[in-house]
Amino acid sequence: MRETLAKWVSDADALHHVERFGFSQLPLQLDYLRSRGDDYYISLVGELFDRLHEPYRDSVDWSRLGNAITQAGGVGVDQAPAYRGILSPEAAVFAAAAFYFGGYSASAYLTLKATDPNALGEVQRACYELLSRPSTIQSARVRALVGALRGGDLEAIRSQIEHAAEMEVSALQTHPDEWVGWRLFQRMLSRFVQTNIRAVLPDGEAEFWDPLVRSLLNRDPPTWDFFPSQIDAIRSGLLGGVASFSIQMPTGAGKTALSETLLFYHLNRHPQDVAILLVPFRSLAAELRGSLVKRLGRMGLPARCAYGGTVPTGDEVRDLDDTRALVATPEALSGLLSAEPGFFSRISLVICDEGHLLDGKARGVGLELLLARMRARESGPPKFVFVSAIVPNIEEINAWLGGTDATVVRSDYRPAHAEFAALRVAGKNTDATVALQLHPHHHESTFLIERFLSRDDFRYRNASTGRLNTYSFKSVKAQAVATARKALSMGAVAVFAANKRGNQGAVGLANELLSQLANPLPMPAPIQFVDDAAKLQTAVEYFTLEYGASWVGTRTLAAGAVLHHGDIPQESREILEALVRKEDVRLAICTNTLAEGVNLPIRTLVLYSVQRRGPDGAAENLLARDIKNLVGRAGRAGATTKGLVICANPAQWPLVAPVAQQQPGERVSGALIELMGRLQAALSQRSITLTNDILEGATALHTLIDGIDATLIDLAAEELGEDELIWIAGELSSQTFAASQAQPATTALMKHVFELRARRVSAIKGAGRLSWIRETGTRARMLESVEVKLLPMRESWDDIAAATDPELTETLLTWAWDLPEVAEAVKEAYRDASPSRSDFARILDAWIDGQPLVELARRAGIDIDTMLGVHARVISHVLQVVVEQAVGLLKKLLEENERELSQAVVDFPEHLRFGVPTPAARVLAAGGVRHRRAAVALGRSPELAAIGEDGRASVFPTARRLLNDQERWLPVMGRLVLENAREDLLESSDPDDGV
């Protein structure tokens, strides 16, 4: 782009922001744009046609040109054309063409989404439909293209290029407008013939691909071609061969669709095998359950999710026989691999998504050891595909997983680019003003919007006194919230806080928003952008029932915004995410849950703080790569053509600037090597000898020893003696990613840890109990505690009639209460004000009884935010894990002595997991009814309460019939839960599918 035009584009972009932020008076340096709109638009269109002859080398320039034509041409419902003599549909086609030529097909689609094509001529209509992918195609030429794509006739697509070229030459002699259309269409076809899905797939015309192609074409919107990042990966040989691959792709660059393509190819080429998609978070697994898993099933590849407990149920293990693809968290997969060795042996492909979480503390240690375990498999390792947006040293990880230099794919393609800005404060107190500096990292295009925030934005008339007051806006928090409010006119906004609770966390931001909205400040309010008030009200009703009307999250939602963080239960987060995804709500206040793989259409991201506060108040800077992953959420394919990231705290801009400058960020070393370093330092400082008792007594080391044990148990063949197993353990320690980087002393310590665990596993094997661990998927370190402490707590374990028996809860809690991991979790959740065991037992009984969290908080005498933390850390995580481990081992200990374990005890972990009081409620929750309230209410009905274990098959049909009586259930469930429950029951035919 010419320097003068580039300056013009930068100024026009600044003008766009000034206008969208609500300023009526323009900066003098931008005033010239008002009188030269026609020159500007004509120059941009001229640049487009110049670049058809000499394309840009950098695809980002195409995106910049597309956005510039969009703004100048008045494309979209909220744009005003700079040049009054143009047709908006024509400008939309020009802008979309620019995006498409740069590889930004999602932005091209979005640009045309709200455009009326009726004013376009025949060939321009073909251009429009090729890029907008409408459900009903009127252009015969585009219908022919899609038909050829569906049928695998690439020659028919190529022949259209020749015809378009002939028409272009002919039109040049007769009609200039027709020539413009044919020129664009011919160039679009030239690109389409290279990027369409059939052209990119190997042997793409083959019938082999028909199910995948149909799936892609039948979506809304349909997928007709691949992104550049996906093309690079496929053409690098990702689909074929057994070599491991590592892919670095920015957020939003099409990782899910690429994974789906790989799964389809691999599983159809290897019909006896299984493929795994490893995802780090339950939230991402839940999202994929409703999309990827269903699509694979429709293509004849049975798929399911595993992201619940660490010990699989018998039904879950049996379901594996028919499973071809499994989406799983590392914790859930580890238990499945232990419980079903046959399933483990069938795995030939493992896709590791969000792979940078190798550095993720306990989660990272578990992931590294799980990958090492699969590498050490006796039959040989599977093919690994390691995927991340932010790993600068991805070649090292690829080599560790068995890949080569030729199997590393790097792409910097982003479907929608992010711009950066920062707040700049001048003056003090009420005389202070806050400027917004656009592009602070780029000297040539930086621009300062003066008085972006000032006293005028915070003045209001007190209704009771009639006096003018000024709301205090000196805090970064007040400025961050006000900035978000001003950005609402551009689209969805997220305000990020590094902490959940406290005055400086997401909860504090939500309270600040409510405080501002309590006064009539002259700024946009989020409720103004809610189009469907009734839909919002159903969500508010749900949150009121679950968490109370006074909870800050409920009040925030009633004001037209969402509060989203990791302590909020998954079913509720999914409701909030759906509201933002469908743009029913435009403002989200969130923590790093935003960056956990869930795709939301964020136009503007306001970074309130990129420093995390620890329990002691000390600040810890977020890593540059974590900030990069976060800002990758601003500007989503198919939702916005670009994003804006605003750093609200000027003092923290130096932490954001490297990301804006696209610096690589910190390398990923893995949490295992960091943990070993801390262990080494502690042993040296205290001059103690490491033992298995020390390892098992330190909660920070539990993920380490559990991962080691699981791998050694896999390898501990019957004929192996202790010395041989110890030798294997030493060799296994050298197979970790940590070993490839560690200093000799750290390597020796790690080998020692592995050898200690080999001695523990050998002792269990010598006692004849190793098969217990294998069959149940439990953890070896739990065996002694269950045998010595839990087992003797009852004389008989076969006389418990109901899983909800308070005596059973009391027994299991008494045993678990003194476990170090439970004690630590309780202390953390209650912030050192831990309750007595009997007080906590009452909370647990209420949870299993199906009471909402607001009622649990009331009974416990704590605020709902603390209760959310107790539920997230203790009830649904640590306690759930130890109880399901204990029950699995208890069953084996009793069987050894020819004693029985009541089925009620076997069922208890699922009652604890789902918080439900009846067998029918447990079946419904396990079978896909997403809302606990629905499962509890239906399970308590006389019709379902009478169904015993033998009648499980009738639970779902009966529940479906019951919900036909909406008047009966509406007062109990609320409208949102009732509607979702009806949908869940219609979709769920197998009560054990996908949990």
Structural descriptors:
19 strands; 47 helices; alpha/beta; 8-stranded mixed beta sheet; 7-stranded parallel beta sheet; 995 residues; disordered C terminus
What does this protein look like?
There is one protein chain. With 995 residues, the chain is an alpha/beta fold. Helices cover 53% and strands 9% of the residues. It has 47 helices and 19 strands. The strands form 4 sheets. An 8-stranded mixed beta sheet has the order 10-9-8-19-16-13-15-14, with helices on both faces. It has a 7-stranded parallel beta sheet with strand order 3-4-2-5-6-1-7, with helices on both faces. Strand 8 (417-426) and strand 9 form a beta hairpin. Helix 4 (59-72) runs antiparallel to helix 5. The longest helix is centred in the C-terminal third of the chain and has 33 residues, at 864-896. The chain starts with a helix and ends in an 8-residue tail after the last helix. 51% of the residues are buried. The model is unreliable at 989-995 (pLDDT under 50).
Summarize the structure.
The chain is an alpha/beta fold and 995 residues long.
What share of residues are in beta strands?
Answer: 5-15%
Query: Segments where pLDDT lies below 50 for 5+ residues?
Result: 989-995
Rg, nearest Å? 30 Å
The counted number of beta strands is 19
Give the overall silhouette: globular
Lateral arrangement of strands in the main beta sheet: 10-9-8-19-16-13-15-14
Instruction: Sketch the major β-sheet.
Output: 8 strands, mixed
Could you tell me the mean pLDDT? 89
Distance between the termini: 53 Å
Task: Give the fraction of residues assigned to helices.
Answer: 40-55%
